[in-house]
Amino acid sequence: MFVIIAISLGAACLLGLGFVAQQHAAYREPLKEMLHPHLILDLVRMPLWLIGIGLMLCGQILGAVALREASMAWVEPILATNLLFALAAAHVVYQEHFGRTEWLGAVLVSGGASLFLLFGQPNGDHLPEPGSMRWLAVLAVIVVAAWLVFAGLRRSLKIKAMLLAAAAGVLYGLQDVLTHSSLLGLSKGFQVPFETWQPYTLLCVAVVGLLLNQSAFDAAPLQISLPATTAAEPITGIVLGIAIFAERLRVSPEALAAEVIGLIAMVAGIVILGRSPFLAKSEQNAAPLPDGKTR
Length: 295
Description:
Elements: H1 2-26, H2 37-43, H3 47-69, H4 72-79, H5 82-93, H6 100-120, H7 136-152, H8 157-186, H9 198-219, H10 222-225, H11 227-245, H12 253-274
């Protein structure tokens, strides 16, 4: 288990560093490109963003290795610490000053997610047939992500960034589940996963999740745009684990108390970070475009 923990920590570190590089590049893009494919097309021409994507992909590969050897209950809490790695890297590399408020919010978000998942301890890992009704939970999650996006369209820039980040986190959680499903299918034969719809859905979900995440990064600084993703991804993964893989949470009084405390801590952390003095960018503080115009 020590090896799994080490691999998961390595994955969280790479994910955090990748998020920092992506946000630093995406935050310079015009706000009008939010939720538009042109945002990704512009970003792929930036070496820093490509480095960030490379780091994120390496982190996801390490996370997939850990998920193949252990349950989501062990891996997801550790991956949730990517927020701490991201804020630490932003502080060191970009000299962004974070006060006690920002660090408290980050610890509450990451610690709350870890507390919820570690005490919940889902058990059981049954892969249903591709046509099973259990897979309808995937559709439900996609609807939730879409609702978050539409709910944020007419909100302030900060709220929009948080809702887009939450939607990205929901899709990232779905991505983890589809990855886990594909890895379980590999145990039955290399060709088995590719005979089902899950790997192809995984690709579509990954692309849309990436666009939502970069749009959130375009709208607000890291401590505003990343926490909701950090909280939404593991919770979505665990809910889908219960719904699809028939995993079961512990329901002892102690476990339930810890799970509730974890959820409250996550919400409190997001609220604290949402009130951070690092506001979302506006017309006054937007970076100029190459032609000298502002966003």
